[in-house]
Amino acid sequence: MKLFLLPLTVVSLAFATGGTWAQPTYGWRQGQTPESAGNRLVNRFTPPPGFVRRTVSPGSFAHWLRHLPMKPPGTPVRLHTGRLKGNQSVHAAVVDIDTGRRDLQQCADAVIRLRAEYLHARRSYGAIRFHFTSGDLARFDRWAAGWRPRIRGNRVRWVKRSATGSGRASFRRYMRTVFTYAGTISVRREMKRVPVSGMRIGDVFVEAGSPGHAVLVVDMAWHPKTRKRVFMLLQSYMPAQDMHILRNPATGGVWYPARFGKTLTTPEWRFKTSDLRRFGPGGT
Description:
Layout: H1 41-44, H2 61-66, E1 91-94, H3 107-121, E2 129-131, E3 137-139, H4 140-144, E4 147-152, E5 155-160, H5 168-180, H6 184-190, E6 192-193, E7 204-207, E8 213-222, E9 229-235, E10 244-246, E11 256-257, E12 263-266, E13 269-272, E14 276-278
Antiparallel strand pairs: 1-10, 2-3, 4-5, 6-14, 7-8, 7-14, 8-9, 9-10, 9-11, 12-13
Helix pairs in contact: 3-5
């Protein structure tokens, strides 16, 4: 079960700027066999007839999300325990990323994990920063310098007591600490509300609550003649489980129309247009 410090405050994510690379880097896959091009998200799903993907800048968060590595077709969603998720009808594909063995990487945590992984891959360590629910800022660059939180009740005190390092092991310990004290309430408070008409890859539909839910926009396409747009969603859920691409329950496919009315219906949650949020400053 996830722990929360009271009162709830915000999780702060900063966007990095500058720097590009030809091929996106996914740090959790270090040491593994390189995935084939066909197992990239962008190559797994084609846009609906007449729709095309708009070009995104190499090195951007949008480009990084669009090229996420995927597990083979037909892979089931598993919980953090290794057991199969009860409902296997909600997903169209499973992201090739670890979940962890604890019930931590749930819906909002998946959003946080992907954004932080992107920044870590860019070595934008100073941009990886979150607030604990106590209001204390947890900066990864400070964590990498050996500082750790000492938490007693609702009080957080930072103590320099660990070896320095910004590598994978240190980063994952930092992530687990943030997951423990973050959720949909804190994530939503941090984000800026954006209109659905201005949706970008990397935006998040999030309803705050206990429980609440969050899903991440990982791809978009548009129709050059009609100007209609469609988007694709990724989620984790409760309990912690594999990140997966959601099906549209109305069509069975992976694309959702941007003109969905007042309610966005996903397989396991309904969102309002006012639930669309964006981390800032900066863009995707």
